[in-house]
Structures are given as C-alpha cells and as structure tokens.
Specification:
Layout: H1 5-8, E1 23-27, H2 53-65, E2 70-74, H3 84-93, E3 97-102, H4 115-121, E4 125-129, H5 135-142, H6 146-159, E5 171-175, H7 186-201, E6 207-210, H8 217-226, H9 229-238, E7 253-256, E8 262-263, H10 266-271, H11 304-307
Parallel strand pairs: 1-2, 1-7, 2-3, 3-4, 4-5, 5-6
Antiparallel strand pairs: 7-8
Length: about 325
C-alpha cells in the first residue's frame, strides 16, 4: 500500500490552535467485519490491533479529569472490542454522551445479537455508515450483501425507537462519496435519503452527515495507484473555505489510538502523526493532569479535506453543523 504522508507533509494549510477539549474520540481497535474502499483506517477482518483493559480503564478517569462531555467510539468496528460494553456503561454512569460509530452489519455478527438492545438501553447515539440508499452503490463500496444487512439493521434500530421523534434515541447516517469528489449539499442529500429510505423501507433517522474522503490509507493508496492523487489534492486545496476553520473538529476533539497514544484527529492518527507540533508522543494518561487548550495543532495537506467546500467534521458538513462548531 502506498504511503501518502510524504505527499502531504509540505502544505499551505494555515496554523490553528486548540480550544477547550469537548470530545474524546477513541479508536478501540482496527478489526472490522468489513473492508471498505474509502476506509481511512484500513480496517478489516484480519486486523488484530485492539485496545486492552488497562487503557480502557483510563478512559473514564480522563473523562472526569478533563470534564469531557462526549465519548466518540470508533474502530474498525468498536463493538468487537471485548471491553466495549463495560466502557459504555462506565461513561453513561458519568453522564457522558456516548457515540457509537457503527457499520450496521455488525448487529448480525456472532455474539452481537443483542447489541441493538444494549445500545438502546444505554441511550447510545448511533452514527451509522450508509453511503447510499441504492443497493448497487452500497455493495460496490462496502461489499456484496452489505446493503440488505444495513437496511435490516436500520429497521431493527427503528423498532427499538431509534430515529423516532421523542424517543431520545438518536440515529444519524453517514455518507462518503464513492470516488475523488466532494460530497454533495448535505441538506439536499439528507432530504433524498429520508424520502427514499422511508418510501421503500419504512426507515426514519435524524440527520445525514456528509464526510469528505481523506487521501490517506486505503483510499489515498488507491488514488496514487490510479494516478489521481494530485488531482484530488488540487480539488481539496482549490475548494478551501476560510470560514470552515472555525469548526474543524481537531480544535475541540482529541483522538486516541488503540494503544492510548494521542493525535489531533483520527486522520492524523492513521498517518502516525502525534498530538501537536513538538513531535513528542503523548499518552492518554497525560490528560489526567494536562490541559491541551491553546496548543498548536499538527496540520498537513489532508487537512484541506475538512475545510473544502461545505466542510467536513465529526458531525458532517460544517456549514450546517453546530455540534462541532466553536468560535475563534
């Protein structure tokens, strides 16, 4: 696989600093039951990296020490970590908002038959991958049969109250483009998703998040192989919007890898870039005593992906997204 970091290190991206830490985004491991083309983590069934019990035990302590409001769990498939449910329970007991970035088909894996019920009981917010409302497009990007399983999973979540008004069970979907292009208008695409999923499958959800594909890991390597990496970078850089700097997720979020090492965002984590600009690695345990507010953020060429066009963040397009927006 092609390493894209050398192609990203020389960048014109502006310097930015951290605001108050609001979200701890934790990668519980790279093992996944899918192997998606756009995956910036290069996750898959054969990956063995998994956060251990000692690191998991630090997370509630850090949530308390830094008064962090949101725990955002990702992977791989985060649910495949044996400590996933214990961590969720511990965070919810602290009153912390928990997000599960779920690929939907995990609900049908052996041992996960009661996963949807567990998520509902703990009032976990589900952010679910759903790259299209068309079977052909989803299966092309995520694998044969994924669309049908995803629809069945969404119907199962709806049956438990997810996505329904007044249920308190939030269900959001995530869209990634299939190739080297910017996502379409989030509000218009959300309207299309809601109409098509309700009409054909009786499915309802709250919001659709449109995310830009990052030129790193599996997707970045594919761009290099096809000779389209430079053209895609030109698209991202030429679509830069200064106002999107106000809401980039790295200003209020810190990313934790499966070993507990910190990065400014999940994308930097996958590029092996440590938190900040000093080059010194910092660990989750360091957050027990250290605030990050005001510190410089490590930037590179891929950062244009978060600021291009309507922007891209943990909560979708920055133009409409207030959940990650902060002032400078």
């Amino acid at each position: 696989m092609h390493d894209t970091l050398p192609l990203l290190e020389k960048t014109r991206f502006p310097a930015i600093n951290r605001a108050r830490l609001d979200t701890l985004q934790v990668n519980l491991g790279y093992k996944c039951n899918q192997s998606c083309l756009h995956c910036h983590v290069n996750a898959g069934p054969n990956r063995t990296e998994m956060m251990d019990a000692a690191i998991l035990a630090l997370i509630p302590q850090v949530l308390t020490a830094r008064d962090i409001a949101t725990l955002d769990l990702t992977g791989g498939a985060p649910e495949l970590n044996e400590g996933f449910r214990s961590l969720v329970r511990a965070a919810r007991l602290l009153g912390v908002r928990v997000i599960d970035r779920c690929n939907l088909t995990i609900l049908f894996e052996p041992g996960q038959e009661d996963l949807a019920q567990f998520l509902a009981e703990q009032k976990v917010e589900v952010v679910a991958s759903m790259p299209c409302y068309s079977a052909a497009n989803v299966d092309k990007q995520r694998g044969d049969g994924v669309f049908d399983k995803s629809i069945a999973a969404l119907q199962q979540l709806n049956a438990l109250g997810y996505g329904l008004p007044g249920s308190g069970l939030k269900l959001n979907l995530v869209y990634n483009p299939q190739g080297p292009s910017l996502p379409p208008d989030q509000q218009q695409l959300q309207a299309d998703y809601k109409r098509e999923l309700l009409t054909h499958f009786g499915i309802v959800f709250h919001e659709l998040f449109t995310l830009t594909n990052m030129p790193i890991q599996r997707f970045g390597s594919t761009l290099v192989s096809k000779g389209t990496f430079n053209a895609y970078m030109d698209l991202l850089q030429n679509s830069f919007q200064q106002e999107n700097l106000m809401g980039v997720m790295c200003r209020s979020l810190v990313s934790v890898d499966w070993q507990g090492w910190l990065s400014d965002c999940d994308f930097n984590q996958q590029l092996g870039l440590p938190l900040g600009t000093t080059g010194v690695r910092r660990h989750l345990r360091d957050l027990l005593k250290t605030s990050l507010e005001g510190q410089a953020i490590r930037v590179a060429g891929h950062c244009f992906g978060c600021t291009a066009g309507q922007g891209s963040s943990c909560g979708g397009a920055l133009e409409q997204d207030a959940s990650c927006a902060i002032s400078i």
